[in-house]
Amino acid sequence: MRFVTTLLSTLLLATSLLAQSAPKSPTPRSIALPNGTTATTFARGLEHPWGLAALPDGRMLVTERPGRLRIVGRDGKLSAPLSGVPKVYAAGQGGLLDVALDPKFAQNSVIYLSFADRDEASGLAGTAVARATFKDSGLTDVKVIYRQHPKVSGTGHYGSRIVFRRDGTLFVTQGDRMRYSEQAQDLASGLGKVVRINSDGSIPRDNPFVNRSGARPEIWSYGHRNVQAATLDANTGQLWTVEHGARGGDELNNPQPGRNHGWPVITYGIDYSGRKIGEGITAKAGMVQPVYYWDPVIAPSGMIHYTGNAYPGWKGSFFVGSLTPGALVRLVVQNGRVTREERFLGDLNERIRDVEQGPNGLIYVITDSSDGRILRLDPKR
Question: Which of 44, 149, 341, 368 sits at 20 to 30 Å (Cα–Cα) from 124?
């Protein structure tokens, strides 16, 4: 009888853990672009481009990690670096990172930049966001509206995508800064968090931790490692993110207000040394599971929810850049679950850093290298 009871308990525990487990990527091979679509070099000669934003008139803005912002013409020609860009800490993964347009850009010409911001006196650095007025001649009215707390030493894991919500507030993703992963669980720290702020840097009154003592009021969700991919679902307005794991454990998440995504307490990855992280567990009460995870990793960076009609069958898909092994990853999400994954552009052997949809409905990606390119996916005419 004792044996039967023990066996039933073991089966119930296994069933419970299985129910809590997130779906794992089948790691499909990279395949050829469908329907005669080709990848064309649209612009080149960029030094480690990081963020790409499409302007309403068909031009684009592109950031280069060393600290330059350029205009990309409709013909693919690059402007000289624009003046007025804030001074950045260009070391390791730090530098000038994302660029985003204000929802009312057509009326106010306002843009937002995220970057690694270093205090010269202490040598400590963190993620920051600046707001500026864009002109072809350069940026004016530049103001830093947000700085991560605390600033720490090191040059890794700044996160740093900017996504506007439908209500005009903006999400900013922030990494755990690598050596400070335990602070991803600390609500008094901005490390390892997705934060939500108003367009002037003030705090929305309905943020989940506004009235909690000892918690930073800008926090939206926590327990993240290094979120470099984020976008809104164009249909629901919900935020979707993809974050770097360690060895294994890159995660697709749908962050909700106040939720704890578990890093570094739970993870599907292991340390780069091969050792387990923490207790080596993948689930714990009060910590949400990822919607989907990759092992081996894709090293995600950049993300869109495609709303165009240029490519048959792709409308409504999510596209994520992969740095390693290097690809454009297509995800079909239905009822909150990934039902299909495809990978393209693997034959290029390029690190895809960001993905953008142009006003013409075409998809553009940027490659992360010292001679970085902007690629355009051209459908068969």
Answer: 368
